[in-house]
Amino acid sequence: MFSKKWLFLAFLAFLLALLIRQGILNLGNGWPWTVPLASSTPEATQFLAQLPAAPSLSLPPDSGYVNVKDFGAKGDGVTDDTAVLRKTISRSKESGAIRSIYFPNGTYLVSDTLEWGDKRKDVRGQSRDGVVIKLKDNAPGFQNPNRPKKVLQVEFGHGGQNFDQHLSNLTVDVGRGNPGAIGIGFHTNNTGGIRDVVIRSSDPQKRGHTGLSLDKAWPGPGLIHRVAVDGFEIGIFVTHDQYSMTFETITLTNQRQVGFVNSWNTVAIHNLSSRNRVPAVENRGKMALMALVGADLREGDVRYPAIVNHSEGVLFARDIRTKGYGQAILHTAKEVGANLQSLILQSQSSPPTDTVQTVDEFVSHPVSNLFPGAKKSLRLPIEDPPVIPYGEVKTWVSITQYGAKPDDDKDDGAALQRAIEAGAETIYLPAGVYRSQQTIRVHKNVRRLFGLNAQMIFDTPGQPGFKVEDGKYDAVAIDIDSTYGDRSRYWIEHASQRTLVLGNGSYINTVPGGKVFMEDASSVPLIFNRQQVWLRQINPESYDHNPSIVNNGGRLWVLGLKTEKDRTAIGTYQGGQTEVLGGLLYKNRERVGPAPAFISEDSAISLIYRNKGVPYQVQVQETRQGARREFLFRDLPASDGRMPLYVGGN
Q1: Assigned domain for 523 exists
Q2: How far apart are CA 508 and CA 611, in angstroms?
Q3: Consecutive sets of 10 residues in the chain, 650 residues long: mean pLDDT of each?
Q4: N or C: which end of the chain has fewer CB within 10 A?
Q5: Residue 530: inside a domain, yes or no?
Q6: Is 60 among the domain residues?
């Protein structure tokens, strides 16, 4: 008879093997195509030439942000700033957490991990290229790739309660001689993300474990936007089947094993650029779902595939261009392993070629529909938000100049309205919580209204929080977070056709037409009446609104959708068009009662998503000219609740 101890050890060994096989546990040595950048290989891609421009943004004196240099950080590239930075970034809630942190330009040398000490943090640098958090060369603790260690650990507490973590406008450099270094370990929930950040290895061989690792249960939803990774064995690694992540405008160069790895997660990616000899993308795991739209994958080796999709992974890929690779997409009948190993290892000395391949649209599994029609995605036009300038900091107007005071539980609405009526163009709320007992009219000269890690609570029952009216400019941006206790009917009522760029809040338009852009928001309901709408990382959670998002006769494009509760996610009516590129329907409980996941009435839809938790038995309810049909959970063409592509309507 085996002892309980041996049975327990055998179980642990089995569990470890299973986690490694399915990609949940990543030891960093699982790829057979590692390509060391030796002197005999072609010169590494020039990294900086690939990057889009990034803004330089100072903060006003009353921003409410703590300047790390005021805590004693030197930022001179010589002094070890680890201890000082830990006093700001790592401070816990119990010891007076600092949630708004600012890095002026400088090189901040560190020798150990900087760990987040709380949730809802916003850490931003003055500029992406001017602020560098740099790991010392040959740093102790960062030498073993089998026991990797993070330089910046943007993770805190419970895996599902790590809300609103933000990091922007800086560079993380893992230095030289640190093969076990992970640049950033990132984790956020509901909203949050990384924006305008570079993660790089300055090692001559581009050594480092992973650039950006989302390996803690449960990542997302969140938005990774305008992020570049240079070097490392793996550029970006995402794992765990709960929740989902959205990526846009990602640059990957000089990886040694693979550029982007999705292991079991639901990811939506738009505008991916890769300059790598090794495969640019790998999608694996029985829960994995990837929607990849718009990718330029160059400098590949002729014997490598640009994209590897394992047999259990669901992949939707559209508008893919590869150069140099022998195959654009390898959709394997079984897990990649020894059958590719000899082929790939033989190719390490093979020079890049000029072979160009394009993929119009690829779906790894059968396309679903209820009525006859084309089995292709809608291909709605994709637009970026308009550039609305901040202007010089000295021209910004703080609502504290008009009498508002953060965190005093008194009414600040009148002060904000006075700032608008005075003709200010750029108005900001310093860090803190503000309250308003009146609807704020957004009109006249204001073109940008934003919070610096600030929240607004409206006590306006039956009335909106903000009412956007006609004004001097054709486009206006509002980016102020809502928080618990808000009693407005809608966070924003749009009473004009001006283009609107939003960061958060429930929404309705009372004047049809116009364009709306929303990024990284946990907002419900969203009601769009005959508008053109682009949503990037949207997380509607509510029992009170059904559907959570309504498209009445407009055009709605969604990159990255995540829901909770048991209400319909999106209803499309009156000839509307809705395209969802990657989504997670997480019905953690059914409290109100059954509802279809999606509704379409005499409209057009294309949907790519995955179910988690209690499944929607009716996935799609579609009506055409009075005939109603239902697509059921049991009919999904991929396992584990995944919809590779549903197409409905004209």
Answers
A1: yes
A2: 28
A3: 52 48 41 38 54 82 94 97 92 70 97 89 94 98 96 84 92 98 95 96 97 94 97 97 96 96 97 96 95 97 93 96 95 52 44 81 96 95 95 94 95 97 96 95 97 94 96 96 85 97 94 96 95 97 91 98 94 98 90 90 98 94 96 97 93
A4: N
A5: yes
A6: no
